[in-house]
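Support reply, case 0932

Customer input (verbatim):
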Amino acid sequence: MSNPQIHGFTSAAFTPLRAAFADCFGLGQHGGSVAVVHKGVLVAELWGGFADAAGTRDWQQDTLVNVWSTTKGIASVAMAMLVDRGLVDYDQPMARYWPEFAAGGKGDITVGECLSHQGGVDGVPAPMDLAGLYAGEPYAQALAAMEPLWEPRSRSVYHAISLGTLIAEPLRRITGQSFGAFLADQIAVPLGADIVVGLPESDEARIAEIIEGPHTFDSVTQVLESAHPDAWVNPSLRPTEPNTREWRAAEIPGANGHATAKALALIYGDLVSGASKLVSPWALEQATKLRFDGVDAAHGGPVAYGAGFGLLQQDARPGSFGHSGWGGCFGFADPVAQIGMGYTTNHMLGFGDDVDPRRRRLVECVYAVLDGLQ
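Our regenerated output:
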């Protein structure tokens, strides 16, 4: 797309981000948004391009898009909030909060081990269709009843879908709320963040259409051909699944958050603002403490995890935490720089072991601005 119209604002210091965001359209962006919060203040929010593949709907300020696994970072915030309130301890067995999870010899697997992808429950071995995943309870029951697929604590294998259930199910039992309700009441509304899990039909008109781009499925194929394919079967998922009403309406806290970039930036920016409305510094430290550092046994790439958060944030600087999503969306925080950043796109691309060039362009620009402010 050439010469896209860019909407939104930046502070004077962050003016270079406008050109960087425009460059993303030459790197495979069809439509999207980017936002930055610095020291608790929104300093940039930009959007542009198209919300549909045909190019008939302009991307708006309030356009929502399925952010895939970027949702995991937000789910990890919810768990950190429970830890902060003394309702969960990362070092206690998951079965303490979800008794059925003790089945199959899983009684001693801790919450922290589950959330750092070390629990051996990266997928469910029982046949599971999309309807079971969408309903939520059948998938949770299968996860609770299963035996570990490999020896817990022996390795880390990315829990693509199940990690969300490993947060949502204990949360529901502790608070009485579904994950979507907790997200709305205790994260989205207090921060004014436009993010939802379990999309109401009234918001359908705001949703961007997901577009499967080149090499999008390559990373999944790599996992399916590995010794640990379970995260992507029972059920199998296609990149365009989020274009269905059934996917959008379901609550899949590991994969189907619908958000704006501003929402992601507001949440991550709050965490490192020095005056968080969500968690204390102690709870954030516990949530972002290194729990695994090594190689993912399925895709073979280097990984580092806290309690749900990714700590090896590619081009972000040491100490940063957050989560990216399949195809390009991401959100992260840098506590040293006191920034929270979010990016959303509807054009899913795959780059193997390399960093998405759209991400690289935006993140490098933000850090260049910050370096210039010192």
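We compared this against your earlier run and they match. Two observations from our side: The mean pLDDT is 96. The first strand starts at residue 6 and ends at 10. Please reopen the case if you see a mismatch on your end.
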